Amino acid sequence: MSRRGLLITGAATVAAGTSALVWQEELARLYWRIPGIDKQRTEGEVDQPGAQWIAASRANLRYADRPADYTIDRVVIHVVQGSYDTAVRVFKDPLHAAAAHYVIRAKDGHIAQMARELDVAFHAGNREYNERSIGIEHEGFVDKPSSFTDVMYRSSARLTAGICARYDIPVDREHIIGHNEVPEATHTDPGRHWDWDRYMDLVRKAAAKKA
């Protein structure tokens, strides 16, 4: 065989080997999408240290493998328009058709995680933003400034800083947004009483401690 023929044969063999390797890696990443197979999950496991696991209904989220299949580059801030208990109850209800990843209680900053961060929770009202973001619900009402307690702000800021660190999300207002800032949003939360300057300052301080 000529030198040129050997080179062509060798290149084809390498290419075939590379293609096979890429395919094996892709199959390993996506095998759980085969009907009847779920990505391995540990019951009660949380992404944020100190959070309490309370599972949302599976009807209110979509199993995924983020950030492998969808890049996570946003945190969306919500206000419940109700109590912590109300948010937990409706997110567990399969007929509600929505849930956030986290719910934060006003009186003590307690955090419930209701969807794994690798999964797509139906919280933003926009499919693309659901796929690319983590949603945080806060107990309270948009028209009651007293809803937003200091302990809740601080707990939420630590949570957001942790999310940003896990996915290398810039700590700025382009990437940490309100529900009302989601394209085609029909909600007004977190509302005009949410103190963005205060909140972002707390997130930056929490992020600096993790650096």
Would you write up a description of this structure?
With 211 residues, the chain is of the alpha/beta class. Helix content is 36%, strand content 13%. It has five helices and eight strands. It has helices at 3-30, 84-91, 127-132, 150-167, 196-210, and strands spanning 52-53, 61-62, 74-79, 102-104, 111-113, 120-121, 133-138, 176-178. Strands 1-5-4-7-3-8 form a six-stranded mixed beta sheet, with helices on both faces. Strand 4 (102-104) and strand 5 (111-113) form a beta hairpin. Helix 4 crosses helix 5. The radius of gyration is 21 Å and the shape is globular. The termini are far apart. The mean pLDDT is 88.
Keywords:
211 residues; alpha/beta; six-stranded mixed β-sheet; two-stranded antiparallel ribbon; 5 helices; 36% helix; globular
Give the arrangement of secondary structure elements.
Elements: H1 3-30, E1 52-53, E2 61-62, E3 74-79, H2 84-91, E4 102-104, E5 111-113, E6 120-121, H3 127-132, E7 133-138, H4 150-167, E8 176-178, H5 196-210
Parallel strand pairs: 1-5, 3-7, 3-8, 4-7
Antiparallel strand pairs: 2-6, 4-5
Helix pairs in contact: 4-5
Low-confidence stretches: none
Describe the global form. Answer: globular
Count of extended strands: 8
Order of helices and strands: HEEEHEEEHEHEH
Cross-sheet strand order for the largest sheet: 1-5-4-7-3-8
Radius of gyration: 21 Å
Report how far the terminal alpha carbons are from each other: 59 Å
Average pLDDT, to the nearest integer?
Answer: 88
Overall SS class: alpha/beta
Largest sheet: 6 strands, mixed
Which strand-content bin applies to the residues? 5-15%
